[in-house]
Specification:
alpha/beta; Glycerol-3-phosphate (1)-acyltransferase; seven-stranded mixed β-sheet; two-stranded parallel ribbon; 9 helices; acyltransferase; 1-acylglycerol-3-phosphate O-acyltransferase activity; transferase
Length: about 260
């Protein structure tokens, strides 16, 4: 058991079992999993790097909505992702179906609004790791809007150091082309899911409050993902880049308004 999952006195906390919805197994082995493998025929590389048991973080790039389902479909172990709360609160039939799928898959909603959003995500993530499970994280914090890899947020480093668990880098390749943001129905496109050698940050134990250390750990994780995915890297947060792109589009619309057809 990783040192970070020990009580202060040195005694191991017993794993807190979390119930797994029955529909999770139906999705993985009967309904969605076989369909995803049939349609995308994902090529899996480096699966031996994912430990068969014990807590660990799988940190990957985030290119598509389908990432949430493809990775759990190919892993032998259950993996829990921290998903944005909007997936669980959408309006209408589509919103209810989306929420049902995410709840059934055992995913955890995280409210990303407000100043304490990051701390809430860290608490939830540490709770998953304390049970000895796999935790899936997208360090970019949101999907890439253009297929490039963006700067990682340090929450992944905080969790890795506090829990004392390894971080397994993962690259999703081809999912952006299969289902870019805004596309509801994915197209058939070759997909590769590539896992890298686990990263050990035990040398930084007890330093989770050092900003420079957190940045260095996060950058090492992002570099490992980049080496696997071979994406273009942007040293900027994805959310900032998205906001700037939206502003540019809004300005272009004001500058060049559509003329009514005569």
């Amino acid at each position: 058991m990783p040192d970070g999952l020990l009580e202060r006195g040195g005694t191991a906390r017993p794993p807190e079992s979390r119930s797994v919805p029955l529909f999770y197994y139906l999705l993985k082995y009967v309904l969605l999993g076989p369909l995803l493998r049939l349609v995308f025929r994902p090529r899996i590389e480096g699966l031996e790097h994912v430990p068969p048991s014990g807590a660990a973080i799988v940190a990957g790039n985030h290119l598509s909505f389908s990432d949430h389902f493809l990775m759990p479909a190919v892993l032998k172990r259950r993996i829990t992702f921290l998903a944005k709360a909007e997936y669980f609160t959408g309006p209408g039939l589509k919103g209810r179906l989306t929420a049902f799928f995410f709840h059934s898959a055992g995913q955890i909603p995280v409210d990303r609004s407000g100043k304490d959003a990051g701390q809430a995500a860290i608490r939830e993530g540490l709770g998953v790791l304390s049970t000895g499970e796999l935790l899936g994280i997208y360090p970019e914090g949101t999907r890439s809007h253009d297929g490039r890899l963006y700067k990682g947020k340090v929450g992944v480093a905080v969790m890795a150091l506090k829990a004392g668990v390894p971080v397994i880098p993962c690259a999703m390749i081809g999912t952006f082309e299969a289902q870019p943001p805004g596309k509801v129905i994915p197209r058939i496109h070759p997909v590769v899911i590539r896992f890298g050698t686990p990263l050990d940050f035990s040398r930084y134990a007890g330093m989770e409050n050092e900003k420079a250390i957190l940045r260095a750990v996060t950058d090492e994780i992002m570099y490992s993902i980049l080496s696997l995915s071979e994406q273009e890297y942007v040293d900027q947060y994805a959310a900032v880049a998205k906001a700037e792109e939206a502003d540019r589009r809004a300005q272009d619309k004001r500058r060049f308004p559509k003329m009514p057809l005569s």
